[in-house]
Structures are given as C-alpha cells and as structure tokens.
Amino acid sequence: MVREEDIKLMSRIAIYEKRDGKREIPINSFYKRDYVRLNVLKAIASATFVFVLIFAMVVFYNVDYVLANITKMDYKQMGFRVLGIYAVWILIYWVIARILYAKRYENVHPNIILYNHRLKKLQETKQKEVLKAKGGVVINEDPVDF
After folding, report:
1. 132 Cβ partners below 8 Å, 6+ apart?
2. Helix, strand, or coil (residue 4)
3. How far is it, in rounded angstroms, from Cα 135 to Cα 126?
4. CA–CA separation, 30 vs 114, rounded Å?
5. Most buried of 18, 36, 94, 104 (most Cβ within 10 A)?
6. Rg (CA), the chain
C-alpha cells in the first residue's frame, strides 16, 4: 500500500537526484582526501598545460628577439627563471584548488547525509510492508518474522 508519507519521501529523493544529486552523489563515492587529491592533480595538469601555452605564446610573440639573440642568450639562467615562474604558478594553483575542492566536499556532505537518511527511511518502510505482506508482525515499529 502506498502511503502519502512515502510518496513525499520519494518525491524529495527524486528531486534531489535530478537537481543537485547529479553533481553531488558522485562526489560521495570518494573519501575527502582522495577527492581533493584527484581534483588538485587535475588542476595541476591543467595549470601545466596553460603555462606551456602561455610560454609558447610569449616565445612566438618575441620570435624576432629570440632569433636575433639565439647565440647570445644565457639558457641556464633563462631555464631557472622559467622553472621558478612555473613553480610559483603551480603553487598558486595547488593552494587554490586544495581550498576550493575541500570546501566543495564539505558543502556537499550535509546534503548527502540527508539523502542517505531519506533512502534508509524509505527502505525501512518498504521492508516493513513486505514483512506484513508475507504474514510477519511489526511490534513497536520493529519487524518480527515468524
């Protein structure tokens, strides 16, 4: 038998799954530390790609200077300078990504707890109904099977 309370509960679950759940439920499949590390790693890979693109654009923009002074340049000093800039670039991305994804996980966690609570409550009511249909008895909201 379908009860009004079960319908409301199923509706709330379905609305959550359709809206915020698409983004939040997959986050729950990770531990916080793993979620943050994975996304920080993705951010660092993206930052490296962007840094290489920006570096290439700067070189292409200054191609006249580079070709005119190709034999006079101190490549060791230039390499250390580029690596220093890259290290600062990655450090900034790492800090921002770590804070952002840790906060995102923390913001999702209460919604997931409520979602899991509603699912558990719905499952318990369904188990009680199935037990009653099989001829079991529910005493003080605790199912007893004979």
Report:
1. 138
2. helix
3. 14
4. 17
5. 36
6. 28
Amino acid at position 65, single letter: Y
Residue 137's pLDDT is 63
For the cut 60, the answer to whether the pLDDT of residue 146 exceeds it is no
CB 32 within 8 A of CB 24: no
- In which residue are the tokens 């001829």 written? 135
User: CB pairs under 8 A, 24+ apart, for 8-12?
Assistant: 9/118, 9/121, 9/122, 9/125, 10/122, 12/118
Residue linked to tokens 């379905």: 14
Name the percent of the chain lying above pLDDT 70: 91
Give the DSSP letter string of 44-75: HHHHHHHHHHHHHHHHHHTHHHHHHTTTT--H
Average pLDDT for 125-130 = 82
pTM: 0.73
CA gap 139, 95 in Å, rounded: 55
Sign for the pseudo-dihedral over CA of 122, 124, 129, 133: positive
